[in-house]
Fold:
Amino acid sequence: MEGTENLMCRSGDSFNPWVTSSFQVSCILVTSHIFHILLKPLGQPGPFAQLLAGVVVGPTLLSRIGEVKAFFIQASSAEYYMFFSFLCRMLFMFSIGLETDIPYLKRNIRVMSIVAGGGSILACIFAGPLLWLLIKVFNVAQHRLTFYLLIFTVLANSASPVVLRMIAETKSDTADLGRLAMYTSLFNEMSCVVIVSMLTAFTSSIRFQGAILDLAVTGTVIILNKYLSLFFSRRNRHNRFVTNSEIFIIMFLLTSVSVILENTGYTSITCCFLVGLMFPRESKTCRTLLHKLTYAVNTFILPVYFGYAGFQFDITNVFNKLTIFLTVIIILLSAGSRIAGTLAACYYLKIPRSESLILALLLNMKGNYDLIIINTPPVPGKLWEEDIHDLFVSVVILNTLIIAPLVAVLLNRDVCIAHYPTTLEILNPESELRMLACVYMPRQVSGQVSLVSALSGCQNAPIKPYLVHLVELPKKKKSKLMYHQLEEGDQYSDEEEYGGNDLIEISDALDSFISETKILVQQSKIVSSFQTIDQVVCESAKDLRVAIIFLPFHRHQRIDGKMENTMEEIRTINHKVIRDAPCSVGIFVDRGHTGFQQPHGSPSVQNIATFFFGGPDDREALACSKRMLMHSQVNLTVFRFIQTNSNIHNTWINNASHKDEEVIMAISSAGTENEIDNAFVDTFYNRYVAQGQASLVEKHVSNGVETVAAIREILEEMYSLVIVGKGGRRSCPLTTGLSDWEECPELGSVGDLLASSEMNFNGSLLVIQRHRHSESDEEFITP
Structure:
């Protein structure tokens, strides 16, 4: 009994440290949420409010009261606070690794290394004179290399958790600037950890052996996770998530390797990040981890971690002239080296000056690895001198509290004025394509992922696909079960039941697709009434900055080949999304096994036909076709129809076949769009036809009857997919009369004809409407 009391409450402690630590965490959480509610309308993000909450609860304000100080700050309090920080740090770095966009990292590693290196090199240079000054001030006679590494880290490090949360809360995480800042800060922080760890490892044989052990243990856990995640996913093939006990095994391994690293004198943040980064994405285990960690990390773990960082700051420590002078000098050197180095790197990379300044300020945020180094003793059992420790804590906290509000204002302004490409026509074919695919039920997944597969056929043309499951909000129902009565793995939330077995089937189909193609698709769910779900889809598309939304048709093909209504509500939703979408929209008419199939892994080439009748919608359809053309398993066939009495003559047309690929294209020359259409076709010819990737053949018709006859003749060939623009062709001579029997106006006259049973067409159909309000996007057009 006596031993237990000693364990829980050491001599010198007036209260049980577990109680005081828990109460302090609660106070920080409550205070941070209050500040966040008050400051959010002013545009200030969570990390600023949480640091400020820690400062208020800490020795700066509340803990200056005698009774509060006696309760919070005791002889063994620091050890318990460090333990809480360790747990928080382990979980959020693992979560960051799980959410990291690996393809983006691979594509932009050069840019990130240049931007991160620009500020770090200057910080390394500035750390030399600062080391000389601080040695003189504090009479540092030993551990000067460790002291230099401390100064270098404070000047050069970027606190990646702070940067990530600031960008996420200002909805900049899908913008190019936001993503570059997020991953550059991660790259910068991990580089600082590696540099400091490597230099420390060579100071003694024991530290070197510890580093080798840490690498071996980390590698072992990464390999174990690969097999465990697949094993757990197979065990739960009929469930959406794996069980809590299986997640406990994963977290036990992570905690074990983190404890080993900390005991050998190294920080575990790089290890936790790498374990999350290398975790298999195509599994239920990864989905379960993200589901359980994301809310906890953003709502509890990071506020506690940032709050505790602010709790360490005591404003009374800077109430003398020397400390104020040194604090100002270090903050200016840190900001100066980071801003000057980043601006120089951005100038070299031709990044706009306004974005460069925001990037430089974001990368100057402190509060993660620098605090770890400050609180790490230079030798075991001996901490830094109190004045050195207090000085650098003050620098880190004040630096972030000063810069965070300014960065938030700049980010919010940038989000309001920033433009992004909302059509495929103006998007560079080698630029990243962001797309949002919507499904209501499992049968629609295969068609949507087939489009994703076709559009991601070239490594030089990256794709960022999102798939969202649209679920109707049912009437509110109350669960009669208490939390402890739920089955293992169940959640005490009605929302988790929305989607039912459909959600499991959709997740399984997506997991299989990701495993087979290695194309990572971000899955989400929208639960809303069908009267307002179109607004949520449009808002999601805007937040994700996608260039096109793919919607399923409201009919599906039966076994006998006839089309049958799936849900009439889908048709209404499609109408609304087409009307209000912030980007281009495509409606996909899936014909099942006789229609378009996933090109990845397909034994046969998928033949695609594109009909081009002129105008913005048909140009958008051709732009989509150009993306699919890059896939090795896609053979594009495009038809261009010109009115018989037209004066358009294209002498560059070559009827010869190129690499067994024939491209035929149908275009009208009506209206003022004629010159734009011809220029677009010329560009297509020069870039793809002349290079042997495609061919271009004209066909002349004079009216709607001849157009229908020509389409019937074309469809006698085996095409698995036809792409056409929706278009407004009621006044076009080539489509005169086609709208007389129009059933589905959302498909346009030609699309409605192709979707009807009269055409006897067994392939799939994709009808595309270009975004109607994209004049501001013209700046994205590339020569």
In short: The mean pLDDT is 83. The first strand starts at residue 433 and ends at 439. The chain has 26 helices and twelve strands. The first helix runs from residue 2 to 8.
